[in-house]
Amino acid sequence: QVQLQESGPGLVKPSQTLSLACTVSGGSILTNKYYWSWIRQSPGKGLEWMGAISYSGSTTYNPYLKSRTSISRDTSKNQFTLRLSSVTPEDTAVFYCARGVYYQDYVDYWGQGTQVTVSS
To answer: What is the mean pLDDT of the chain?
Structure first.
């Protein structure tokens, strides 16, 4: 079974960069059937797709967040990372990593999520 686990600090100060890692086990992030997404959930906006990185390392982003979002990977660790810069309290959310299935607009595995609060 594929498992995804988010990790990173739960508290970030305004204007700083939020950084979270997703470690994947039971499958390789290099498998060409899948892409790897970050999704967040907040009371004000609900579920919001942030961006994704493909098996080849190419990235796509939510246009509303693109200017502040960067997704990268470390294939040696089977891990991909989210960075969200210039955060504000409105970025407070539960952040999830997830595996997406190509051509189906669908995710088949989710991490359990991690709460990140932006506050001074």
So the answer is: 96
pLDDT at 104: 85
Which residue, among 93, 108, 105, 109, has the nearest Cα to 4 in the 3D structure?
109
Of 27, 93, 90, the C-alpha closest to 82 is 93
- CA dist 34 and 94 (Å) reads 23
Cα–Cα distance measured from residue 115 to residue 69, given in angstroms and rounded to the nearest whole number: 18
Find where tokens 């246009």 sit.
63
CA distance 39 to 50: 5
Give first-to-last CA distance, the chain, whole Å: 39
Q: At a CB cut-off of 8 Å and minimum separation 6, what does 105 contact?
A: none
pLDDT digits (tens, 9 = 90+) for 42-91: 987 899 999 999 999 999 999 999 999 999 999 999 999 999 999 999 99
